[in-house]
Amino acid sequence: MTPQAICADLLDFTADPGLADRDSAAVRLRPAHWLLIGADGRIVDITPHAPGDDWHKHDHRGRLLMPGFIDSHVHCPQVDVIASWGTELLDWLTTYTFPAEAAHADPVLARAAAALFVDALLAHGSTSAVVMPTVHAVSADALLDAAQARGMRLIAGKVLMDRHAPDALRDDVEQAERDCERLIARHHGQGRLSYAVTPRFAATSTPAQLAMAGRLLARHPGLYMHTHVAENRDEVAWTAQLFPQSRSYLSIYEDFGLLGERSVLAHGIWLDDADRRLMVARGAQIAHCPSSNLFLGSGLFGWGQAQAEGMAVTVGSDVGGGTSLSMLRTLADGYKVQALAGQRITAWALLHAATAGAARHLRLDAEIGRLEPGLVADVCLWDWASGPVAARRDAMALQRLGGAPSATHVPDAAALHERVFAWLTLGDERNLVQTWVAGRCRYIRTA
Ligand code: GUN
Ligand code: ZN
């Protein structure tokens, strides 16, 4: 592969910028810099100087280049039910989601759906994701194979559910364990894939199945654990009835040996103080899903309190509870959820959580999340504005910035924030120009 060089305004984070500091020193803007990508798909260098003739050059000066987004919680089959009207979580699952997921037992349908889904992730600016397929092993194979074919860093595993679901969506402990062992052997550590032991949520697994999940995690170091927790008040009450011996919803997972530093738990809106301490002690992360929480009316996640208590927080689109695969739209919803709670968080906090922050909490910071020599070149190229309103807004921000950033005009983070916040708030997949995965261009906007 010819080494590639892309010139744009490079934006990433060297550390956690905190939630409210517009002037954070962790923000790194390198205007009109060249990102040099070696034949192995890794970043070789970042320089203001154009490289020589042996580099294939892509000059996108004036555009923004960032690490690809990491969507830390999303459901592949739920593209089929995104934007379904009128229900809260438990009704939504039985009315729309379970019937749609049942169709993914069909290998032909599962493979087509997986291809559409991973291409859609790339076309929305997400180069990595933590994904739930369905209970069917074939749907996990299809998803992991589709990511592998595109060289993507993807974390996924067959969903475990052996009760409180329609027949077509229930496994049993023995078959599920055999399926998981086969899937782990086939996919975990292959290319950029990692396997996640994936009990859907406590309510759809028997204690025997959760115990089996714990055994899998103990048997295979490096596996992830992916589930939902404390999303909706009716769900929390129901779960407490099902597991009366556990102190809390989160404690169920702890009691079955499911919490560790590679655990990703979606939502966590209704955790208590002891739960948050447990999350911190285990190094587990909450995938905050603001779009889904608003759409299903689940509640408002307290990001400020979580951050103050040292809990790891990343961001998930949670399609189809969430209404867009765009992490820009999801992050913009994240801002609004915190605004409702009286806190204004910065564009830096939001963008960091979906790039370097997610990479760190997934223990992948030596591979993705920043623009740094040695890391894999998973990057997205963005227009600052799409459409006349966003263009006008961007022009206003640029005026106050004293013109476009350049090698001789590098604005500080506080000055830059207005422009980036407006981009994040108004932007979506229409702003996305190209997506590169491991140094290969995998998406090009055509319109
Ligand atoms: N809890 C259990 N399953 C699901 C799901 O598919 N989506 C959401 N948002 N919450 C869940
Ligand atoms: Zn979910």
Give a concise summary:
Pfam families: Amidohydro_1. This protein is an alpha/beta fold. Helices cover 37% and strands 22% of the residues.
Structural class by SSE content: alpha/beta
CATH first level of the largest domain: Alpha Beta
Overall average residue pLDDT: 97
Give the overall form: globular
The CATH superfamily of the largest domain is identified as Metal-dependent hydrolases
Largest sheet: 9 strands, parallel
Q: Which CATH architecture of the largest domain?
A: Alpha-Beta Barrel
Please indicate the count of domains: 2
CATH topology of the largest domain: TIM Barrel
Quaternary state reads: single chain
Report the total helices: 15
Distance between the termini: 27 Å
Q: Report low-confidence residues grouped into runs of 5 or more.
A: none
Strand segment tally: 16
Q: C-alpha Rg, in Å? A: 21 Å
Strand proportion: 15-25%
Helix content: 25-40%
Bound molecules: guanine, zinc ion
What does this structure look like?
This protein is an alpha/beta fold and 447 residues long. It folds into two domains: 4-67 and 380-444, Urease, subunit C, domain 1 (Roll); 69-361, Alpha-Beta Barrel (TIM Barrel), CATH 3.20.20. It is built from 15 helices and 16 strands. The strands form two sheets. Strands 5, 6, 7, 8, 9, 10, 11, 12 and 13 form a nine-stranded parallel sheet that branches. A seven-stranded mixed sheet has the order 3-2-1-4-14-15-16, with helices on one face. Helix 3 (137-149) runs parallel beside helix 4 (173-187). The longest helix has 17 residues, at 107-123. Bound molecules: guanine and zinc ion. Guanine (GUN) binds at residues 75, 89, 93, 97, 200-201, 228, 231, 292, 318, 321. Catalyzes the hydrolytic deamination of guanine, producing xanthine and ammonia. Belongs to the metallo-dependent hydrolases superfamily. ATZ/TRZ family. InterPro entries: Amidohydro-rel (IPR006680), Guanine_deaminase (IPR014311), Metal-dep_hydrolase_composite (IPR011059), Metal_Hydrolase (IPR032466), Metallo-dep_hydrolases (IPR051607). This is Guanine deaminase.
